[in-house]
Design brief:
heterodimer; A: alpha/beta; Elongation Factor Tu (Ef-tu), domain 3; Rossmann fold; 2 domains; seven-stranded antiparallel beta sheet; seven-stranded mixed beta sheet; 16 strands; 26% helix; globular; B: alpha/beta; Fumarate Reductase Iron-sulfur Protein, Chain B, domain 2; FAD/NAD(P)-binding domain; 3 domains; five-stranded parallel beta sheet; 19 helices
Chain lengths: 279, 480
């Protein structure tokens, strides 16, 4: 069992949990993920690390409440525990020797952008971060980003309730036009990553995206996470989750992510009916 | 020569039996194809005794050499004839820690039973069914009456085992007999490896697997789930920071293979691994009571001709498919699946489309709508000795389906080998070992599918046991 040692709500539907998992915390690197299962009968879901402490032996992750499992997770508190946490999985994000970088975090993707930006800063890169959200309420980790030695933090919201009223691709394009970046990394909804990659492509700025396909085991066994990169089938869990954004077939990924939408709604409705304690 | 039980050797030679082989009771195809309960029901005690009585107790038993772990078959059946089940179980467990599992899933017809003298003129003794009956008998006993093999005196040595599948479990049991401390590291949340995620409940109930694994824990085997070696710890860390004296690698050939044909990433295409893992390990057939979903196809095409293909087809049927097609490029005679599985699949209404090779998966709006395939004919024998399928010109046709399951094999999982640079692997990623299961890395041994590629449960167990003996010798040498 993995005891929960930290829990906080970041916005209406976004939460952060921390669990004691010393063996995983000792190894975790930016861009890697974990698989968790809340309890017997639960599903296994992948979540990327948002933070960890090798010294104190904990790991944290941030998630949006979208289905039954994340709904259940959002109800857990310090003192509860998770049945299973496995990791660190996936290839760590490449952060060494990348010069001037821009890291784009959209929505809950900011949770992954944060440790990536931090690792890039630690590796000596000059890092600009663009954080985008639909509105100010959904903006997460602003204080954490401000505490990093960034060149600049750019905030965009769809409605202008915080930072610029823009999509993340607008400042990204400006940075590319100004030849101010040598490397881009985008983490967020697939559609955002697709447009970020499209934006940087015309300027020839190498762009890495962190994909979030459906997984079952997370160790290469099932192939649920397969995606097409440069015309080849890759497994998100063992070959990724980071891939060359200019090579990824985003349309296919978006299609594959909706396989279980109907069933997930059914499961969540079932859970919501049973769980009336938080209403 | 395997050891022969003295009392069994002294028994008078028996007259050839004229009694027919005792049939295995099983549920009707109509009934069983709707649920996940076990298909075969197992012998009653009377049936088991009657079947044991058929054994000739040959002076020189040939069945034993057909067994990959050399179970003293003559002796255990001899004890059964006398009604001494306790000793029968203990003879069985001398060689095989998982009799209730192996009694169900071993291809006995190609192994021990094919060497039975009775098979020359009629039907062999149903050795596998007797093994299963004894394994189940042991599991129904109170714990204190179960046969738990004797553990050797503490050697002071610690061995780490990677993977709790058949190879790792067999290796663990054997190492405990030698007195070594054993920890199994399992990447999933449940033990058993392919016995748990791969083989369906209706063929191998999970409570049987868990009960037999539980007996290994009674022998002092420690099992740590949620541990991915190559990620949580590297193999080197097991031997340094974690202080293990030796390691056995039995992590299996877990990566699914696809055909690389158009449309394979459409929604509705599964690897057999994913499909079976969702249903078996994650119990998706109980959705939404269990949280993991699985698509319940109406018309399902399964590609392949092995046991995994049969398991997938029969699972799809149980999930409510109206039609399940088994698409295989050779004929039923060349199928690697066990005859019994093929027979059960046919009985349950799986439609066999033989001599068909998939060309492309068709889709609309991102979802599978069908599959195009080409008709094949058999040509000259290939390297495997089987007649190679050859395309029939202009024979392409469409199979109407909404789900496709690829059951065409697996390959080596790279997580462990990639993080262990000094572990020699073949060009296909399998771990290279000598005849004793020793790898290129001192103190590291390997066996099972990670060495051989996809094979059977019992071959993996045999490899695990052989490696355990090598590990024991190596530890003795390393101590001196």
């Amino acid at each position: 069992m993995f005891p929960i040692v930290h829990a906080r709500q970041l916005s209406d539907s976004v939460f952060e949990l921390g669990v004691q998992a010393p063996a995983i915390a000792a190894k975790a690197k930016a861009g890697q993920f974990l698989m968790l299962r809340i309890a017997e009968g639960g599903e296994r879901i992948p979540l990327t690390f948002s933070d960890w402490s090798a010294k104190e032996g904990w790991i944290r992750f941030i998630f949006m409440r979208v289905g039954k499992t994340t709904h259940h997770l959002s109800h857990l508190c310090v003192g509860d525990s998770l049945a299973d946490v496995v990791g660190p999985l996936g290839v760590p994000t490449h952060v060494e020797g990348i010069g001037r970088a821009v890291v784009v975090g959209g929505g809950v993707g900011a949770a992954v952008a944060y440790p990536v930006a931090r690792a890039m800063c630690d590796a000596g890169a000059e890092v600009t971060v663009i954080v985008g959200a639909r509105n100010a309420d959904l903006l997460i980790l602003e204080d954490e980003f401000r505490a990093l030695p960034l060149k600049e933090l750019i905030i965009t919201t769809d409605d202008g309730s915080a930072g610029r009223k823009d999509l993340v691709t607008a400042p990204l394009k400006e940075l590319c036009e100004a030849r101010a970046v040598d490397h881009a990394m985008a983490i967020g909804p697939v559609i955002m990553m697709k447009f970020c990659a499209a934006t940087t492509r015309e300027f020839g700025v190498p762009t890495v995206v962190s994909l979030n396909p459906i997984m079952v085991d997370g160790t290469g066994m099932c192939g649920a996470c397969r995606c097409t990169v440069g015309g080849e089938t890759k497994f998100g869990c063992v070959d990724g989750p980071d891939f060359d954004g200019h090579q990824v077939d985003f349309e296919e990924l978006m299609n594959r992510q909706r396989v279980y939408n109907d069933l997930e709604r059914e499961a969540d409705a079932d859970y919501s009916r049973k769980c009336s304690c938080h209403q | 020569m395997p050891p022969v039980d003295e009392t069994a050797a002294d028994r008078p030679r028996r007259k050839p039996s004229r009694a027919p082989r005792t049939p295995m009771p099983e549920r009707s195809a109509i009934e069983r194809a709707r649920d996940f309960d076990e298909v075969t029901l197992g012998y009653t005690e009377e049936m088991a005794r009657a079947e044991a009585e058929r054994c000739l107790q040959c002076k020189v038993p040939t069945c034993i050499e057909g067994c990959p772990v050399n179970i003293d078959i003559k002796s255990f059946i001899g004890h059964m004839i006398e009604g001494d089940y306790t000793n029968a179980v203990s003879v069985l467990k001398e060689r095989n820690a998982l009799p209730a599992v192996c009694g169900r899933v071993c291809p006995q017809e190609e192994q021990c039973e094919s060497r039975c003298v009775l098979a020359k003129k009629g039907e062999s003794v149903a050795i596998g069914r007797l093994e299963r009956w004894l394994g189940d008998f042991d599991l129904t006993c109170e714990l204190e009456h179960r046969c738990i093999p004797q553990v050797g005196p503490d050697s002071g040595k610690r061995v780490a085992i990677v993977g709790s599948g058949p190879a790792g479990l067999a290796c663990a049991g054997e190492l405990r007999r030698f007195g070594h401390a054993v920890t199994i590291f399992e990447s999933l949340h449940a033990t058993g490896g392919v016995l748990t995620y791969g083989i369906p409940e209706f063929r191998l109930p999970k409570h049987i697997v868990q009960a037999e694994v539980g007996l290994l824990e009674e022998m002092g085997v420690e099992i740590r789930c949620d541990m991915v070696i190559g990620a949580t710890y590297t193999l080197d860390e097991l031997m340094t920071a974690e202080g293990y004296d030796a390691v056995f690698v039995g992590n299996g050939a877990g990566l699914p293979v696809f055909m690389n044909i158009p449309g394979e990433n459409l929604n509705g295409v599964y690897s057999a691994n994913e499909f079976l893992t969702r249903v078996n390990l994650m119990r998706a057939y109980e959705f939404p009571k269990a949280d993991t979903p699985v698509m319940r196809g109406r018309k399902v095409a399964v590609v392949g001709g092995g046991n995994v293909a049969m398991d997938s087809a029969r699972t799809a049927k149980r999930l409510g498919a109206e039609e399940v097609f088994l698409v295989y490029r050779r004929t039923a005679d060349e199928m690697p699946a066990r005859k019994e599985e093929v027979h059960h699949a046919r009985e349950e209404g799986v439609e066999f489309k033989m001599l068909c090779s998939p060309e492309a998966i068709l889709g609309s709006d991102g979802w599978v709508t069908g599959m195009t395939a080409t008709r094949m004919e058999l040509g000259e024998p290939d390297a495997s000795g089987r007649r190679a399928p050859v395309c029939v010109m202009d024979s392409e046709f469409v199979i109407d389906c909404d789900t496709v399951i690829m059951a065409i094999g697996t390959r080596a999982n790279p997580l462990l080998t990639q993080t262990t640079p000094d572990l020699e692997v073949s060009n296909r990623g399998y771990v290279v070992v000598d005849e004793n299961g020793a790898t290129s890395k001192p103190g590291v041994f390997a066996g099972g599918d990670i060495v051989t590629g996809s094979a059977t449960v019992i071959l993996a167990m045999g490899a695990g046991k052989r490696a355990a003996r090598s590990i024991d010798e190596w530890l003795a040498g390393a101590a001196g």
